[in-house]
Amino acid sequence: MFKKIIKSYDYSLILVVLLLSVFGLVMIYSASMVTAIQRYGYESSFFYDKQKLHLIVAAFVFLFFALMPYKIMLSNKILIPMVFGSLGALLLIKVFGHVAGNAQSWFKLGTSSIQPAEFVKISMIIYLSAVYAKKQTYINEFNKGVIPPLVYLILACFLIAWQPDYGTAALIVMIASTIIIASGMNIKNMLKLAGLGTILSIPLLIFLKDKIFSDVRMGRFISFMDPFAEGVANKEGYQIINSYIALGAGGVKGLGLGQSIQKLGYLPEPHTDFIMAVIAEELGLFGVLFVLFSLGYIVLKGIYIGLKGKDPFGSLLAIGISSMIGIQSFTNLGGLSGVIPLTGVPLPFVSYGGSSLLQLSIAMGILVNVSMFVNYERKYKNKDSVKQQANQENTVTGNAIQFRK
What we know:
Layout: H1 2-8, H2 11-38, H3 46-67, H4 76-96, E1 98-100, E2 103-109, E3 112-114, H5 116-134, H6 142-146, H7 150-161, H8 166-182, H9 187-207, H10 209-212, H11 215-225, H12 238-249, H13 275-308, H14 312-336, H15 354-404
Antiparallel strand pairs: 1-2, 2-3
């Protein structure tokens, strides 16, 4: 049985994640060398060394969740502490949190930091997948099957928005929406939820309009509309214009690894939010396509696993995880290419960041584990059941012949 389990793991998915993470590590070193020295006064390899440590820890975390049967997470002994622990961390950050980028979103630990909101993403996926999987028999009862799980979603998003980090809160809502759509509830209940969400959003937009539509956030919309406008190009549009320059300068082959010009102080966050711009400039179209195809493979593979799985919990987990990676990738790439306003969302597996990498390693470990169970059931359980049925039929036939004799 152990050999069958080992053979059932999706090694193509593991390989893609590994290649993308190692590729990201190389590009973080290239993108952050100058920033580390000029802006922070660190050694040129500072962010590379830290991300290398993050990768080592992430590898062990990935292995743990890839080997742990995902159905264990259906237990209330895991779900309840996870929910209250994440909400508690979001509350504590308002007291002990570190402010950076106009948001109090991090716990500072020396030169390292932890962002609890990143882990709420995977926590939300696990919780909603588990609860809606348990409620399948009455999923269309609005007050009993639909509303109760959303209390956690509302509280978590409120606390994240309070930091304020509206971008992450919006991402979590979008990820949760994909799980809700895939949960099996009817369109009528989905429309009710959409209407309820709209009603709840209106008073928030009215009372918090000054915070939500602050000068910084409105500047992002202004630069999105026309970054080259007079008075905008040197202010709000500065980041996106330099991103355009980096994207266009690389061409097909790129300028060469380490040869980016825009990372020399022109791009504000070359190793985090704008790392794809550096990839495009240094490695050209080939580097961009490698990242796009790798991320696309993970997302499509996750959706495929979700559709093939017979267990509602596993299917919802796979769809939630793949949607998280897909939505976050689109948000990052759409921002730096001008398709949508900038949000400050890191590119999965590639951008610098310990919290992001750790929660992604948890997510991918779970996805690989779900995939293993789906493959095991398809390859071996069906064959074993057919063999068992055939043996029973042979036994019955043999008994009938013996009886006749």
